[in-house]
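Quick one, T. Sequence first:
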Amino acid sequence: MRAASEYDRRSVSSRTKRVAVTTAFAVYSLSVTASTAEANFGIDESRILFHVDEGWTASFSYLCVNGDCRPPNRTNGFFERDVSGLVSVGQTVTIEFKVEDGGGQCLTGPVSITIGAAGAHVPSSCASTNPDPDPNPDPDPDPDPNPDPNPDPGPTPGGSSEDGAGLITQQGSTVTTRFAERFRDRHESDLNHDRYITEYAEGSAYEIVLIDRPHELEVQLRSPDTALSMVNFTQDHIVNPGFADPPQYTGGGFMSKGNLTGPADDNAGNLVNNFFFRVTAANGRPWSTVRTHRETVTLEFTPRRPLNGNFPQYYSSIIRYRAGQGGITFERDDVRYFSGGPTTNFAHGSPGFEFSQAFLGIDQPTLDRFTLGRELFRASFLGDPLPGNGGSATGADPAAAEDACIDCHFQLGKAAPPGRDTEERQGFTGNGNDLRVAPQLIGLGLLEAVDQATIDDLASQSGGKVGEGRFGWKATEPTIEAQVRKAFANDMGVSSPSSTFVGRIVDYIRGLGVPIRRHPEAQQAQQPNVALRVPDAHTITDADILAGETAFQDAGCDNCHVPSMQTGNDHPFPQFRNITIRPFTDLLLWDMGPSLCSGSGEGNATACEWRTAPLWGTRLQERVTGHATFLHNGRATTRDQAIRAHGGSAAVSRDAYVNFSASKRTDLIRYLESL
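Structure tokens:
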């Protein structure tokens, strides 16, 4: 820190003249000529990069040199940053200042200066001491005579890639990844990660496009339904054992407002739907090096949007991007982690909300419908208002057992049978032999994407029975929509639900992502607000988990709980097409023995036949719902009890398990706890 008197000498003979925009990204050049003006922006004789502080709100601010943007210190009426290790006398550099103010932003744009012995200074377009604008500004530039040979590839493509989430396309050397995020009011590691703000139930999603070229990553953010005042963007995010609020970072800045065809309009009061940013270096190295080594780069977006006359700050997930390859990634690369293939979500630090997150790589229109469907899923159809969807949820029979979907599917996890837990966490139909608890809902869209031919082929190989459908405990319903309509009619007494509402609930359920697998001890250590995105000390390739996987196979459990299968090519969600998923089910009917028989058959399933239950996500059952419940009637409270209850076609596997040594049984249970 320097005494205030030193700042008094910050005056230099200078005059600014804006010249033509040199690229589509609105880079301006300012030359220094003879005239006296107060120095409010520049680099002084001590190589301190500074900008005058005019009292901005400044939750975020940056001083940049040659594209390296860092948060500055704020003292004695100036923002300042020591750049002595980055610049020298006689060098021409580009400097830039970015500051938040009243929900908006002010950006000087890149300014070129040549450093003398006394430094170099220019008036700033973000300072009130600016000279009057040039009355004869230069005209807009002619079109770029050398356009980018790798332009934006255009509309969202119709397929996905197994090497990462999102909709990934490649055109020459350019790799483009598209995915969506939603506005939320807290960090993803907070307990209220699933909290949605009523006022933005509609227009809740924005799209992120990452255009990865050999020497730069072009980042675009598009909010088609809601104009934004600013977007703070950071890369080189510090991922440490504790959680910091605000987040810690070493690089970034405000995204420029406007389209790539520019020039940008970064006026603080300007509300726009499109933003962009160029990343030319990350992880302390040029982008070309980062890309060559396929490094992971951490990105974070913090948008502000108008809401009730204010500009509240919102947080999105922290994104880990794989340079040069495309897609959103995780610390681990073993495919067994990714139960939902490239759509697997990384819900961390959000106990109770792991089943409530959208799949990774969801697109903006689908995420918007997902949010609207979420509102409907939680609404009472006895008249709850629907701010996002409009109107009210009506039509439920007051005499019906339930009037909202969430009444049975607490936190989207498996419900408890009667008397097992609080009324809020119980969800069941029938009694006695016909008792059935509401199942967990994650991954149903991926199961819907499996071709019928795949299921038929599994049946021919194993001897299992193909049901009339693939959803429900007895595989009676062919689609998620059929299952939703059945629940409306049978459970809630809604005889004529709105087709629009049904469609949005279907898109919500389809869009629920499958959480990543984790070692049980790693999961136990993952508490809220701690260890955001840090690598696990224990992995699913540890010896105990691999031994349990072998035991699972030795018992023949994988004959029915098939570990992996391919999806088909015709699902409405392109992200679900032609990918490998790991649900641990064959979607077939099997005789489970007399102790698990129901009172009667259903569809083409007999009283004792049940569809193989998917095992993905079961490690989180108790964490999400507060209770451990297994089997269709919830009678088992441990995995050991559930296995021992298997009979009929599963009796051989049950007996093998019972005859294992105690340590081998422990390994198998440990393996199940990692799914």
